[in-house]
Amino acid sequence: MKMLSVLIGSLMIALQLSGCHTLQGVGKDIQRGGEAIEKSAQ
Fold first, then answer.
1. Prediction pTM value
2. pLDDT tens string for the chain (42 positions)?
3. Cα 19 from chain centre
4. Whole-number Cα distances in Å, 1 to 4, 20, 24, 30, 41
């Protein structure tokens, strides 16, 4: 549960910092955030 909260929080922060205004940009930001979390989990 704690990991899920961290994941959601990290994604929200990444989206806010990126400032992208298109759905395609949001998708790319989410993907990059997920990749960063996967790398840190390994």
1. 0.44
2. 788 888 888 888 877 776 656 666 777 878 888 888 888 777
3. 13
4. 5, 28, 29, 20, 15
